[in-house]
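Hey, sorry to bother you again with one of my protein questions. A protein chain has come my way and I'm curious about its shape. It would help a lot if you went through both lines with me. I owe you a coffee for this, so here goes:
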Amino acid sequence: MKAYIQTDKDGEFYNVNAFIAYEGFKNFGYEIESFLMQIKFQNIIQNT
């Protein structure tokens, strides 16, 4: 399974909750992928 964790433009966790989620999913063996919210919205707008 894969977990998507939000980061800022520098690749740092967006907030402490994102870091806690990262640690939890990593401990359960999930594949972690980070994303920038801005990029996700741009992709959605371009695909509509």
In short: The beta strands are 2-6, 31-35.
